[in-house]
Amino acid sequence: MKGNAESLGQLAPSHSRGARAWREWLLYTVWRIVLLVVGIVFVAPFLWMVVTSLKLPEQIYTWPPTLLPAPPQWHNYRDALTFVPFGRYFRNSFLLVAAVLLGNLTSNTLIAYGFSRVEWVGRNVVFILVLATMMLPAQVTMIPVYMIFRRLGWIGTFLPLTVPAYFGSAYSTFLLRQFFMGIPFELSDAARIDGCSEVGILWHVILPLARPALTTLALFSFIGTWSDFQGPLIYLHDERLYTVALGLQQFQSRYVTPMNQLMAAATAVMAPVLIVFFAAQRVFIQGIAITGLSGR
Amino acid sequence: MASFATAGKVFPRAPSRLNRRERRRLFVGLAFISPWIVGFLVFTLWPIVVSLYYSFTQFSLFTPPTWVGLANYHELFFVDDKFYITLYNTLYFALLAIPASIAGAFVMALALNVRLPEVAFYRGIYFMPTIVPVVASAVVWSWILNPQWGLLNAFLRLLGINGPPWIGSPVWSKPSLVIMAVWGVGSEMVIYLAALQEIPVSYYEAAALDGASWWHKTFRITLPLITPVVFFHLVTSLIWAFQYFTEAYVMTGGGPANSTLFYALYLYRNAFVYLKMGYASAMAWILFIVVISATIVIQRTSSRWVYYEGER
Questions:
Q1: Which of A288, B19, B56, B122 has the fewest Cβ atoms within 10 angstroms?
Q2: Does some domain include residue A67?
Q3: Alpha carbon separation from A58 to A265, B145, B173, B282 (Å, rounded)
Q4: CB contact under 8 A, B246 and A35
């Protein structure tokens, strides 16, 4: 991070040194309180979710609300996750994530290399086309793509959710291209003089250096696939193939679900992404800041 | 955007007139991007064209398309009341949610742009809502917004306010979703924060020498310098608003009284619930045209309010 964050000290008009120090302290304190209050507002939904998930049924609908359910009802998790086969949903989601991850990493690496490290006539024009597809609302292509997969007999399988990842995505290509552009071209030239092929350069020169970008892409793919709802909703009809996102929605809407169990299921669905997020927070935030794009 | 600026050369020569080295490079480049070319043709270009054709036909999954001319468009514009309801709902939501998100992301970024040790921690906290699955946060928010037992109204009661029924009422359902949208603005906040940290300190130092107040510095230096981010956020959130789907599907199912029946939700229902695929395709094309026109309008006005450094 660059160190040009604004210093609050500049806010205080200059009086005597003591008065100035005091005002500065006051400003920082107020600022800290604001950060804290906003922080509480942002985590409150998560805390409320976890608190509710540990309640007895009779503690759910009370005034004033029970803030610390004692004793915590950990069995709500077991109850919720076995009432519908969440174990299977988790396995399905992880399977999808693995397949999409593999596809996204391989295809976008190749595509981004072609758009950044090889100079060819018309490259920039074609790249604008890549960027333009980011603006295309998914609804426009949704129905014809569905019909293609239907003709292939892929409805009700994971294929419509995984195969497109092997043909690149504008967002991921953009992310990797931005990174590849920053790698010194002298390295490629040196390898070329040594008789290295383009694939060799990609493999021996670029990939080892691009590990941070690839990690970012892997994390984004994980989150995106884990959270995707509309795709599974359209393509998966067999309950045995449900992903966690679709399973959670069905759990909420199809049964009269007790709130504590519903919140337990929601916590379980969020847990993997939150764990990954806290383990790799910096990578995430840098990824967004570099590309100027958010995952949504 | 920088990536657009690099696109200077537009096919300087026809491929047949390239020399051997250039032709080889063209071949290598195309080979590398070939997955994208196939994907673009199969999953983007062809579907766009077919979607346009479908919009002039009537078909369900079980019958082949039959040409009906402009009948779908006619029905949308002159017969189907719900079409206008969804347009109204979507615009209403967009006009509330987009300014609220921009203001929210900017203010949060400002608050985090300070030298305090706990900033990294809060950045993570503010960002957290954007990475969790929308279905999960929608389920949690349905519970928080519960009129009787939800956390929000419990808190309001503490302040002596009788909270509204939130997603249970046609008046409050859209504002409820806006609150949730602002809660999830963390990833945009990160972009604002990155832009704020690019601003040279010398600007503020110079302004301080001239006796500028904090207010002045924020609105005369900071805000103009991050207008490119605002522009970007405006365009992307417009596209987002028109595709707003999951939260409404999970939390309200379009209700109450169709107050959250948004465009994308109605389109989905026409396609996959009522199986009116041709009709839904016409809706998709109207959406496409609206998004493109809105983007062009914003782009056209941008020279008046977006500040690019180096441009005088």
A1: B19
A2: no
A3: 19, 19, 28, 50
A4: no
